Amino acid sequence: QVQLAESGGGSVQAGGSVRLSCAASGFTFSSTAMFWVRQAPGKGLEWVSTISAAGRFTEYADPVKGRFIISQDNAENTLNLRMDSLTPEDTALYYCATDRRGTNRGQGTQVTVST
């Protein structure tokens, strides 16, 4: 079955950077579009970024455009998210998912950005 395991979150000061990773298994990773979604305290799931199957195309939500970079390592079945210039508004539980709505997602990794 599909398994997704996020890692790399933590606490960082505003302006800092964090790199998230997601280990994927149970499906053909290189043939699957992958997504990052997040959930801020008291809010619903928010789509963050998409990478197409085989990583040819990427897409970002407006709040993170120019600051986040999504990538994948097909040899390691790993999805990554490089997050720069973080602000407190980026504080959230971050999930990797196999769909844009985050219906099929991992357990998440917490990112907390302080001023």
Task: Provide a descriptive summary of the structure in words.
- Helix content is 0%, strand content 50%.
- It is mainly β and 115 residues long.
- The protein has a six-stranded mixed sheet, with no helix packed on it. It has a four-stranded antiparallel sheet with strand order 1-3-8-7, with no helix packed on it.
- A hairpin with a 6-residue loop joins strand 5 and strand 6.
- The chain is globular, with a radius of gyration of 13 Å.
- The mean pLDDT is 97.
- Largest sheet data: 6 strands, mixed
Question: What integer value in Å does the Rg equal?
Answer: 13 Å
Q: How is the largest sheet built, in terms of strand order?
A: 2-10-9-4-5-6
Sequence stretches where pLDDT stays below 50 over 5 or more residues: none
* Helix percent band: under 10%
The portion of residues forming beta strands comes to over 45%
Shape: globular
Output the helix-strand order.
Answer: EEEEEEEEEE
Number of strands: 10
Q: Report the average pLDDT across residues.
A: 97
> What's the N-to-C terminus distance?
40 Å
| Content-based structural category | mainly beta
The total of helices stands at 0
